[in-house]
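Exercise 3.2. Students should predict the tertiary structure of the chain below and write it as structure tokens, then compare their answer with the key that follows.

Predict this chain's 3D structure.
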Amino acid sequence: QSMDSTLHYIHNDSDLSTNSSFSPEEERKSKVQDVVPQALLDQYLSMTDPSRAQTVDTEIAKHCAYSLPGVALTLGRQNWHCLKDTYETLASDMQWKVRRTLAFSIHELAVILGDQLTAGDLVPVFNGFLKDLDEVRIGVLKHLHDFLKLLHVDKRREYLYQLQEFLVTDNSRNWRFRAELAEQLILLLDLYSARDIYDYLRPIAFSLCADKVSSVRWISYKLVSEMVKKLYMASTPTFVVDLMSELVEKFCRCHKWSGRQTFVFICQTISEDDCLPMDQFA
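Answer key:
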């Protein structure tokens, strides 16, 4: 019966809604809950103890980090205060594998916690991961759209200024990082206004179109064509006109053959995906 009631509680729609209305007093309560046996939770929380890692298993913190979203889902967001300190401890763990594990799941945790707790407790951790090693940053990058779409519009716009930083990696040969950035930018087009796309995403897209690695360039052609489509449908026509003029200037009239080839491939993608009416394309 206890298990049935717990499962019913976990899958209750109200528990997964995007609103969170817990007072600061409730957040400060001690790490006590009534969903699972308290001794079991205490054992889990003790996994971040450094002495445990030395005497039991050096990978124990990584396993703890891997399980954390599941534990958070089981306990429900009203018991997040039980896990918050442990999460922050793991997010600053010396082992990059632990931080990487959390980076790959932070978007899932945001869905479980709702917008208020995400803004207060997860965004600072997310910001820390953005400045971490590439091995950690890739976890954030792979689910960038999934995380940003959960934030309020104003908060989401703050990250426009940081997207450029993803072009810089510890190892310039890490082309998969830039390919993933191009993939994410295609998804991010739906989250931002025409003005933001033109001002912030366009320069990154043009930079990726000139990448040394062909796999990155091919994804970038798709990115630019989707950008043309999005700006064409916007209420202000000047953005798409300016974008196409810049495509002609930067690539069609480029003194390097590779730039002119890029223009042809972008035109091909725009044509194949019906991003523009043919008269406008001409």
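Discussion points: The chain has two domains: 33-151, 172-281. The radius of gyration is 23 Å.
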